[in-house]
Amino acid sequence: MSKKQNKRYTVAVGDVTVGSDHPVVVQSMTNTDTADAKSTARQIYELHQAGSQIVRITVNNESSAAAVPEIIDRLAAAQCHVPVVGDFHYNGHRLLQDYPKCAEKLAKFRINPGNVGFGKKKDQQFAEIIEIAKNLDKPVRIGGNWGSLDQKLMAKMMDDNARQAEPLDSQSLIEKALIESVLSSARQAEELGLPADKIIISCKVSAVQSLIRIYQQLQELCLYPLHLGLTEAGMGYKGVVASTAALSVLLQQGIGDTIRVSLTPEPGQARTDEVKIAQQILQSLDLQSFKPEVTACPGCGRTTSEFFQVLAQQVSQHMDKKMPEWRLTRPGVKDMNVAVMGCVVNGPGESKHADIGISLPGTGEAPTAPVFIRGQKTHTLKGDNIGEQFIALLEEFVENHY
């Protein structure tokens, strides 16, 4: 298990603690119209049920700012107390001033130095947001994105770079500008009176190697907690693989305090998928456990039947459905390992190493399925409803051991 490098500031975001030696926090963001309080509250609830520990919402206009108190109240009525973060761009200073209940209800403000304001208004509007955060004792995430860099800063750095004997290439210059943008804004926030332990920073880009380089530098340059994630990671396999590649390298080096997998949902894809992927990254690295692991073989010519694949899916779906309940009543179950194997080659061995496992008959093998519980063969299942029998044994195992 990787340990975090350097002791970072500890930041409280609602009831969630970020930074220092605390576990990495999984975040997500809604894609509903925030002004639709009912739909937004429902999606926040679903994301939290899936395991998101902090949820961010867009607050981009008066109707969305006005809806925030109702959203939080709806969540409270549903016994959902997940911290909700407001994402502000361009007009955040005005919305926070004009809708004080919105500012009070949010657990954190998220701003981008490049989108706070322009020209002479930028510093003033930034100061207004920081003043509100300071007065309400709210943390702020100062987040840079390469699509919204501070253009004045970028122009100055380009001019300075051009005068160097060995100027940086454009990519390196952008990375340097991003780092300077967020760190200078964080310093400015401290000068305005916001405590260091109320600041989280991020520098999100959409290229894996660039993200790794940026966060390796940030880790050495500051003690603010770091929020990791590719911005615009993409759809499908591309988004999943790119996010996993980038986050895994950094997390393995002990870098990162909160993470988000910013997937573009495919048509019909659940928003909660990004939460499950973030959890799986942390769980695969042995950094945290969120739910039982299912070990299943990939299948081969010995397993031409789809039965073991169907059962592995049924078991996974069953545990996903039960986890909101188990998380409260049987928290230890998150460390359970379940094996669903397809034939006698690796099946018995893998099943013996799991807390509970089943070795299904492969093609042409005897139509029996031994079940192993913590290394001991305890049952032999037969018939047309092996799947139902095994899930019943799984439920009994959880009941007796967790």
Derived from helix and strand composition plus strand pairing, the structural class reads: alpha/beta
Mean pLDDT: 92
User: What percentage of amino acids are in beta strands?
Assistant: 15-25%
The global form is elongated
Q: Which stretches of 5+ consecutive residues score pLDDT under 50?
A: none
Number of strands: 17
Strand order of the largest sheet: 8-7-6-5-4-3-11-9
Annotate the secondary structure layout:
Blueprint: E1 10-13, E2 16-19, E3 25-29, H1 37-50, E4 54-58, H2 62-77, E5 84-87, H3 92-98, H4 100-105, E6 108-111, H5 121-136, E7 140-145, H6 151-162, H7 170-191, E8 199-204, H8 208-221, E9 227-228, E10 234-235, H9 236-252, E11 258-259, E12 263-264, H10 273-284, E13 293-296, H11 307-329, E14 337-341, H12 347-353, E15 356-359, E16 369-373, E17 376-381, H13 386-401
Parallel strand pairs: 3-4, 3-11, 4-5, 5-6, 6-7, 7-8, 9-11, 10-12, 13-14, 14-15
Antiparallel strand pairs: 1-2, 15-16, 16-17
Walk me through what this model shows.
Helices cover 45% and strands 17% of the residues. The chain has helices spanning 37-50, 62-77, 92-98, 100-105, 121-136, 151-162, 170-191, 208-221, 236-252, 273-284, 307-329, 347-353, 386-401, and strands at residues 10-13, 16-19, 25-29, 54-58, 84-87, 108-111, 140-145, 199-204, 227-228, 234-235, 258-259, 263-264, 293-296, 337-341, 356-359, 369-373, 376-381. An eight-stranded parallel beta sheet has the order 8-7-6-5-4-3-11-9. The protein has a five-stranded mixed beta sheet with strand order 13-14-15-16-17, sandwiched between helices. Strands 1-2 form a two-stranded antiparallel ribbon. Strand 6 (108-111), helix 5 and strand 7 (140-145) form a beta-alpha-beta unit. The chain is elongated, with a radius of gyration of 24 Å.
